[in-house]
């Protein structure tokens, strides 16, 4: 009987201790850190698309244009690691009205441009050599990891400041962090094109401006739970 009571007492103390741990007073807050950065490089995805009735001729024409494009890219002194073929396709297409087959060939090239001052020259040359589709332009920062680290630190500082503001009203203080959740997502802005300056509108030969790169908002979001003291 005494042993049974002893066992029950130990169980009661264990349960009580467990409940005390679960009921540790704490506060959970969100924090956001944002760093605005002017992009210094971009990734361009461009495509040559050719069509015709003969598969062999269509593919040959597409290959010749891509060969010219690659020669031009090399003349731009881009590092070999900064451009690559992303996709190649040759697909039959059927016109039900005319009851005829045709073929569509595409080759897609991905280019990392590390000097945005060469953007206009690169784009003009690509189009001149046969590129007839611009699939995507993404602006980036070469120091992305550094700015992400800065944004995370700012997010944690804001979370701590929020928690201190809340508990100061109650005459309490925050202790160590219990949990930290990273809710960050990386966002790359899409290109914002500006109208080309017409050379006919002005006698002066000013350099053209064909896009506005804007800024990248590098944002970090965290959720932090602090113990209350």
Automatic annotation (TrEMBL):
InterPro entries: 26kDa_periplasmic_antigen, SIMPL/DUF541
UniProt-listed Pfam families: SIMPL
Keywords: Signal
Signal peptide, first to last residue: 1-18
Gene3D superfamilies: Protein of unknown function (DUF541), domain 1, Protein of unknown function (DUF541), domain 2
Keyword tRNA-binding: no
Key word Signal present: yes
PANTHER family to which the protein is assigned, alphabetical: SLR1258 PROTEIN
Protein name: SIMPL domain-containing protein
Natural source organism: Flavobacterium xylosi
